[in-house]
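Issue 218. Parser rejects a valid record. Input:
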Amino acid sequence: MKKYPVLMTGPYRSGSQFALQLISGIKETSATMYNVNIYRYLPNDPYIGNDLLSAIKKIANNLKVRSNIILNQKLVLNILKEDFPSVSIYSRSQIYHAIISSLYLKNDIDTWIEKTQLNWTKASEFLEQLPNSKAIFIYRDPRAAMAGFKKFTNSPPPAYLGSIFNYLCFFQTLTALLNSKYKERIIYYSYEKIIENPQDYRYVIQDFLEKPRSLINVAEWKDSDGNPWKSNTTQDEDSIINNPKSLIDSWKKRLNSEEITFSEKILSPYLERFGYQATGLEENINTLLNSLSKHPSTKLMYSNYLKTGCGLELFPTNPNA
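Output the parser choked on:
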């Protein structure tokens, strides 16, 4: 059976969980989130022999502890041999594909989608290593994402400001991919465009995956544990489902003028390119910039930005801890 792996990713607080739910139940397609997420746990190394067995065992343990999923490790090895017959040394992307295939590609299901956060820099590796693979990128107005992260995080200030450097990296990576040999195998969608017409978004993704069109079915929405999905929005719970458009510009009330100025200065080359208008605010942000040294992640991100002009794909704290 020909298989079609799909990576779905984007920055945190960007509506990607909602975006995944809207494409649940597509024919011949498994759509899950966070379960395997192999790029978080395995380095980009070659895997053979005991290293291969250890890598699979590590992911099996993660699945058991985090999601109570039992992985058939022998089946994973068999799938690796079947799907990559000319390969003797495997990549983590190939292991990723074999693990998810063993879990979800059954009966008539030939396509898998896993939604994860902060994996856009792995997209080129994913697309290079896996035949018939594609990638879906979900993003939103970075100022709205930062406002959400500001409210919904266990990391102390100024960690939330790091979301802007994440977005800089995201836009830079996506721009490079759109000018690469992979451009026909990727699609990007803004949260604002999704909530403007959710059904149209579903149709576009179905066309991209070459699957028959079908209507949204809320009954199919599940979380990473298989339970009915519940939004983790930092805003009004009812609005995220019934009136999401009302939340688009709420960041204007949730951020101060220094935070908005900071966001727009860092992202000025990309905001308009990806569909957003700057406010034009020009507040003094020296105090804000000085505060970046108070958290390890923002200190690293800002230092890297000053040296290279680039963002970083980085969590504020270790997500594996």
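Fixed in the parser; the record now loads. The chain has a mean pLDDT of 93.
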